[in-house]
Design brief:
There is one protein chain. By secondary structure, the chain is mostly helical. Helix content is 60%, strand content 0%. The chain contains eleven helices and no strands. Helix 5 packs antiparallel against helix 7 and helix 8 crosses helix 9. The longest helix is centred in the C-terminal third of the chain and has 28 residues. The mean pLDDT is 86.
């Protein structure tokens, strides 16, 4: 893959604190006639607006705006809904329960949906996780090795995630609730997350919350 892998703790800690190293992804090489390059460049533009692919001062600003959405008062409101989701999943499979397939896998995405103000069915949750997995296909890969099918999956995932984020933001604009999404939209008096930053960091939340599940 053309990279160096650090495995010693001291080396990794040094690298994470070394200002000459960057968290920002490079823009993929583009051929103006290559539609796939444009597609991936657009995806990288969105992803580079997320916390994990930015350096200070951009990272510092994003972190300041995002962290205000996850205050204890907002998170504690999830206690009841998380219990309801757990009971529903258990009740749905009371005759034959597989802890991984019926609880551990669908629960994280259902809770994340609730965190974002959207109630997801198991089928909707599976689709959302599928989009998150496909959205990551270009990472750790030579872009030239992506097959037409994989490029189509990346495109479909990006469209699906855009639609989901638009739904999340649209529902909040209608309700105006003081929740995670409301706080992300509110930002600070002198600063707001841009449309790309909102998309990137909501998708980051979904991916971070589900990536430990089997693809």
């Amino acid at each position: 893959m053309g990279l160096w892998l650090l495995t010693r703790y001291d080396d990794a800690r040094w690298a994470l604190g070394e200002p000459r190293l960057s968290s920002t992804l490079g823009t993929p090489a583009q051929d103006s006639a290559d539609a796939s390059s444009h597609l991936l460049a657009d995806m990288y533009t969105f992803v580079r607006s997320s916390l994990v692919f930015t350096d200070p001062p951009d990272h510092t600003r994003l972190r300041r705006l995002v962290i205000t959405a996850f205050v204890p008062s907002v998170i504690n409101e999830l206690t009841g809904p998380v219990g309801d989701i757990t009971n529903r999943l258990l009740d749905d499979h009371v005759e034959s329960l597989g802890l991984a397939a019926h609880l551990a896998e669908p629960m994280p995405i259902a809770v994340l949906g609730q965190l974002l103000g959207v109630s997801l069915s198991e089928a909707e949750g599976r689709q959302l996780k599928h989009w998150c997995d496909d959205f990551l296909l270009p990472f750790g890969r030579d872009i030239g090795t992506l097959s037409p099918d994989e490029l189509a999956r990346v495109r479909s995932a990006a469209e699906g995630l855009h639609g989901f984020v638009d739904t999340v933001l649209g529902r909040h604009n209608a309700s105006g609730a003081d929740d995670v999404v409301g706080r992300l939209l509110a930002g600070e008096s002198e600063d707001r997350l841009s449309e790309q930053e909102l998309f990137a960091n909501i998708v980051l939340l979904l991916i971070a919350g589900t990536k430990t599940q089997p693809a």
